[in-house]
Write a structure and sequence with these properties.
The protein is an alpha+beta fold and 135 residues long. It contains 5 helices and 6 strands. A 6-stranded mixed beta sheet has the order 2-1-6-5-4-3. A hairpin with a 2-residue loop joins β4 and β5. It is globular and about 40 Å long. The protein starts with a helix and ends with a helix. The mean pLDDT is 94.
Amino acid sequence: MRAFREAVEVGDMDAVEALLAEDVVFTSPVVFKPYPGKAITAAILRAVSQVFEDFRYDREFAGGDGRDHALVFTARVGDRTLTGCDFIHLDESGLIDELMVMVRPLSGAQALAEAMGARFEEIAKEAEARSAAAP
C-alpha cells in the first residue's frame, strides 16, 4: 500500500493509475452507483486530486492477509474541511480491484459532490478516451 499512498501524496496520478486493476470498482462517497473499470476510476482520481486541497493521509490500517487496507485522510474542498477514508482491496496480483471512499461531515461531502459534479463531463470524456486507447 506504500506505493499507492506515496503516489497520491506527491500527486503522481500516472503511478496511481498503474496500481489499478483493469476491473477495479470505484465506489464514490457521493454517488450511489459504483464505477467499474480502470479508465473511469483513473479519471475520477485525477479530478479529485485537483479538487482536494491540503490533502494528507493521517493513518493507515491493514488487514491480516495484507490485501485489505484503510487510509484515513484530511482534505479541504473550498472552505470545507473533511475527513475521509480510502478502503482498498488488492487482487491476487497486488493491484487495486476495489476502492471505496467515504467522507464526513455532510457539508464536506456536499462540497465534494458539487466540485466533482462540475467536472464530470470532463471526467467522462477522459475515461472514454482512455478506454479507446487501451490495448
